[in-house]
Amino acid sequence: MTTITSIPSLYPSAAAIPGEFDIPAPVSQEDYLVDGRSERWGGEMQTVVSPIQVDAGAGPAPRVIGSCPMLDEAAALAAVEAAGRAWDHGRGRWPTMRVDDRIRCVEEFARRMSEKRDAVVRLLMWEIGKSLPDSRAEFDRTVEYIRDTVDALKDLDRASSRFVIEKGIYAQIRRAPLGPVLCMGPFNYPLNETFTTLIPALIMGNPVIVKTPRLGKLLYGPLLEAFREAFPPGVVSVLYGDRRIVSPIMRSGKIGVLAFIGSSKAADALRLMHPHPHRLRCILGLDAKNAAIVMESADMDLTVQELLAGTLSFNGQRCTAIKIVFVHESRAEELLERLSAGIDTLPLGMPWDEGVRITPLPEPGKPAHLTELIEDAKGLGAGVRNGRGGETALSLFRPALLYPVAEPMRVYREEQFGPIIPVAPFTDMETPIEAIMNSGYGQQMSIFGSDPEKVAELVDPMVNQVCRVNLNSQCQRGPDTFPFTGRKDSAEGTLSVSDALRCFSIRTLVAAKGTPGNKTLIADILRQRRSSFLSTDFLL
Ligand code: G3H
Questions:
Q1: What is the rounded distance in angstroms from the CA atom of residue 213 to the CA atom of residue 220?
Q2: What is the pLDDT of residues 11-52, one digit of tens each?
């Protein structure tokens, strides 16, 4: 690895850390949440080390920012039991609660959560190295997602509050919950992506066990009280640990839905642990290697701007990041020059530094892994096209622009999930098309071009390869009301505000032949409000 001699000075001394963002003493998070109680853990703890190194005089050194429980099988199974009691075969208080009462709990949670913004944002910066504006955006987007979910549920509930009469049969069709959910989010959006499954799962009436992400665990500490106060016992459990807790939860066979954002390999292993895989619904957000195709007709100003954001936002650690760029050979040199100049303008630094764009990488060993990918590509004929690309200093990694990238370089097909921009030239459009067709992934892609005929010719084959084709725009998940999904190894199920409500529920109906007796029966139930399912009340 080439070490950047100038970068260590970017790591702060303890005195240079702005007080409002500092974590001067380690946070000891000994509590976890189970059955509506904060339990104090007396066993093994896991140490949380920040990717932000602090210079105490002898050069930058890792800072321990806290510790949290490394729970064991018994703790995991206690959460399964608590979720099972809250579910109680669908007869529990939560799954049978009226929708407006569940909404009130979720709104109460959102209110309490909002009060913890500063604490959560600070931990996002220290645990995963996310910049201050991006950490704030993650928090705010999550609160907005909760509000949008409530609105979407009201719409859904209004649409289900009427009877359907078909061939003489009267029916009320609603969506019913599925049962206990295991919810596992990723380290790059430890709050937002976890909540985009947790909140819809909850609000539809399912009890949820949250296994905090591999990185980004401490930030759940400030939220435990809000969970405990807003929801009935057993409805939400928050656990800290590793596979030692996940395996018993899955093997118990008592989980109805697995909501998992992470690697396809891990998702496959989890699914197979369930003793009755056919009873398990999976909502999965997995790997991706989104491609951009830069055509001869591309507007280069716009293309470079979108590519820099698309490849390097949060250091390229987004499942939606553009992870390979195909460029028409006639525009390659121009693109490389401009991307290289663009990368030079992206400041490296600490998450709270004004205007910072490249921040420390939170995964231990990631700089070494990225360096390996670069060396592999170099050995097969590619070069780093930006001056000091690929230089490292501890957890900081200067983005590398690699060209020309081709098979069999690893970076041509592997998801780098970091600040490397592989660029592959083409003369025949079949080259990128085939690469996308033969890729194991199928989340999104971007087309940069202004020739309507050529763009349209490419859109048609691409929409059957990926689930979102972006025109002259980077790949992204948002707005959160848009469907977010993928083909092949990239996803299972669709997550948008409204689709997620469907993912965590099943269409269920009460139906009756329209005999006079049945009409009288139904009318009485409705008038006397005897059932929460069979009801024509609607939410305003
Ligand atoms: O890591 C995957 C995220 O869902 C990406 O969301 O495109 O809004 O950054 P984003």
A1: 10
A2: 999 999 999 999 999 999 999 999 999 999 999 999 999 999
